[in-house]
Structure formats: structure tokens, C-alpha cells
Amino acid sequence: MENKIKTLYELLGRELKKGEKTAVERTLHTTSDFIANNHFLKDVIKVQHHRIDARLLIRDPQKIRDNYRHHIDYLNDRYRKIGGTAIYNGLITYPELLGITPTTIEGNVELLLDELDIQTIQWLLMGTTPGIKREKMELLLIKHFNYGQAFREDTQEYKNALTENMREFVRHHPEVLILSKEGISAKELTYRKQKFPVKDYRATLEIDARKLGYLN
Description:
The protein has 216 residues and is mostly helical. It has 11 helices and 2 strands, in the order ααααααααααββα.
């Protein structure tokens, strides 16, 4: 254990954070694996030193390489308009995504690109599962679009419109899904001290709903 900590200290040039130490205690990989990962990240794909986390270095070297190749190929195929250089730069800017499985990356693209029609790669959202993001969207619908509460007696057609309005909000403000569930449940949605204009989307729907006769 001490040898692993020492090796990581030498590779990173700093003391390990608490979360990193906890991860090191659980890993079965060796210091040789750490060194191999560090070489691949820094020397092969050119990740900047300060972006490398110990929790990435302690992973299976082959999986890191396989994930890199998968992510590059898959994202290039799905986001052809963005271009290979931008995708490569994005991936080495967020190298922690090399620890994310192909299944999770693909599921996120299906949700964000195919379902929500968000045309840019949301790098900060790629590290969590699609299921977590769907749960957050459900919370948005309930907490900020009044689904199942104020409009419990309204028609299914109106509830569907309400859901689409929430999705439109997420489409224009995908960073809202970075918030924790507690943050989404808060009375006011804010990210980095910036307020999300959720009321604008909800108000527009309510006006349209009255025109359609869904609301009195």
C-alpha cells in the first residue's frame, strides 16, 4: 500500500486527495499498471499533467486504451459535424472519461443527442449514467413544471406537452443536469451563481395551454 502511494506521488508530483487514497486502498492493480497508464496518458495521447487523477492511473491499462479507442471512434461517428480534432481535444481535457464504459458513453449519446437533440458534446455529463440524468429530468418535471401536482386533473395531452416543455428547457440548458438531485429539488435552480430561466419555459406553456383550453 505504501509503495503504491509513493509511486503515485512520484507520478503526480503531489499528495493524494482523500478520495484518491480510498480508491488506491481498493485497487488490485500494481505500480507497473500505474506507470503504464501514466505513460499512455501523458506521452501517447498528450493529456496535460494537471488533469490526471490518481483514480485513473490505478485502472486496468488495457481498459484505458480500449475505452480511448472506443470513445474516439464512437464520438467521431455520432458527432461528425464537430470534427475529430475537437473530439480528441475534448477527451484529453476530460481524461476521467477514459474510466467510463462504452455502454455508458453510448447511452448518454442516445439520450442527449438522439432523444433531446443536443447537437454539442456535453463532456461534463458523459461521466454519469443515462439513468441518473433521467431521474433528474423527472425531478425537474415534478419540482419546477408542476407535473402530477397542480395539473393532476388535466388531460394526458397537456401532461405530454408539459413533459416536452421540460425537455425543451433541458435542450437549451443541458448544464442543469450537472446539478445534484438536491440542487434540482431546490426552490430556485442555480449553477455557478447563474439562475436558470425555468419560469420562462413554464410560463410559455401555461399561456399556450390556456389557448388550447387545457387551463381555465
